[in-house]
Recover the amino acids of this structure.
């Protein structure tokens, strides 16, 4: 069995199982989970900068926002509001 040491989105293990394949998952301890979220954010950032189209870039930005939301340290709606307000204030 191949090992993929990375975070997966909710529902992915079920999709794998429904396709007839086997997968094993585990719940990470908090410190390891945060480390994996940081690694995922770096990965998504690299994919954003490597994007070859606007659609790909938007998809990667959406993935980055999801990871940021999962960190629990920032409420995305507050972050977006702050960006919108900052943009208006600066013209």
């Amino acid at each position: 069995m191949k090992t993929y040491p990375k975070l997966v989105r909710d529902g992915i293990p079920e999709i794998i199982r429904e396709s007839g394949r086997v997968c094993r998952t585990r719940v990470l301890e908090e410190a390891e989970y945060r480390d994996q979220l940081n690694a995922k954010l770096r990965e998504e950032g690299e994919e954003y900068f490597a994007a070859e189209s606007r659609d790909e870039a938007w998809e990667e930005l959406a993935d980055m926002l999801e990871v940021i939301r999962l960190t629990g340290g920032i409420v995305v709606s507050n972050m977006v509001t702050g960006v919108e307000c900052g943009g208006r204030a600066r013209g």
